[in-house]
């Protein structure tokens, strides 16, 4: 049986292409790149001989088998554990919105289906929606129909999206928006379903969606809850 994770990998921006090649050789076909910045002090940069703190964050969906292969390549070939190279980690995925989306995200990876969640007792979930650029309000309107509050929008660029039409039935552009929505666990499925029905393959948003378990929160209050 296979578990599914969201893999995050961060490296210096000039090294993004090499990192992407490592992921691709490890059967990670689809990833989303987000510009990021490090927080190291100038003294730390001087100590490690680094020129800047501009980073790239790459997000992908991987199975546990794929992660083991990619991790080995990151350590042996990319030397990600060397100072200034970067970091990579995985977060368990609770659910993915539809079989076709799962096949799209894990194309080329060894996958044997198992039950949905590895953390079933969490009170909240982080819903991650990947939509075409300029359609975040369409996604949020669909989410709010089922009780979602606000969302956070992150601009990203997708790679390996050529297979979208094969699995999803429509092509999607490289320029993407990631919409992050925290919801109660009991509301997650209805929100994801609404996004898929109202902002999915039959809309300009072309959204795909998955969720991650949230172990704790602060500063969140949903409609109807007391102050």
Plain-language structure description:
The chain has 227 residues and is α+β, with helices and mostly antiparallel strands. It folds into two domains: 4-92, Alpha-Beta Plaits; 95-214, Alpha-Beta Plaits. The chain is 29% helix and 30% strand. The protein is built from seven helices and nine strands; from the N terminus they run βαβαβαββαβαβαβαβ. A nine-stranded antiparallel sheet has the order 4-1-3-2-7-8-6-9-5. The termini are far apart. 36% of the residues are buried.
List keywords for this structure.
Alpha-Beta Plaits, nine-stranded antiparallel β-sheet, alpha+beta, 29% helix, 9 strands, 227 residues
- What's the overall average pLDDT, rounded? 85
Beta-strand percentage range: 25-35%
Distance from first to last alpha carbon: 44 Å
Provide the gyration radius in Å. Answer: 18 Å
What about the largest sheet?
Answer: 9 strands, antiparallel
Strands of the biggest beta sheet: in what spatial order?
4-1-3-2-7-8-6-9-5
Morphology call: globular
Q: Remind me, CATH topology of the largest domain?
A: Alpha-Beta Plaits
What is the string of SSEs from the N terminus onward?
EHEHEHEEHEHEHEHE
How many alpha or pi helices? 7
Number of structural units classed as domains: 2
How many individual β-strands? 9
């Amino acid at each position: 049986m296979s578990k599914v994770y969201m893999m995050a990998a961060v490296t210096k921006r000039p090294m993004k292409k090499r990192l992407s090649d490592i992921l691709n050789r490890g059967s990670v076909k689809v990833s989303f790149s987000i510009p990021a910045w490090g927080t190291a002090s100038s003294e730390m940069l001087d100590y490690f001989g680094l020129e800047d703190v501009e980073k790239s964050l790459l997000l992908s969906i991987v199975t546990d088998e794929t992660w083991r292969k990619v991790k080995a390549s990151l350590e042996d070939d990319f030397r990600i554990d060397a100072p200034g190279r970067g970091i990579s980690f995985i977060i368990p995925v609770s659910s993915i919105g539809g079989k076709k989306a799962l096949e799209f995200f894990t194309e080329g990876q060894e996958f044997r289906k198992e039950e949905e969640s590895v953390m079933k007792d969490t009170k909240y979930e982080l819903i991650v929606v990947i939509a075409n650029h300029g359609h975040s309000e369409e996604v949020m309107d669909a989410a709010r129909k089922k009780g979602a509050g606000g969302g956070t929008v992150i601009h990203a660029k997708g790679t390996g999206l050529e297979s979208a039409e094969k699995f999803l039935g429509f092509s999607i552009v490289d320029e993407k928006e990631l919409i992050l929505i925290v919801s109660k666990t009991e509301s997650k499925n209805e929100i994801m379903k609404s996004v898929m029905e109202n902002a999915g393959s039959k809309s300009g948003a072309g959204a795909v969606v998955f969720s991650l378990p949230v172990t704790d929160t602060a500063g969140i209050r949903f409609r109807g809850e007391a102050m």
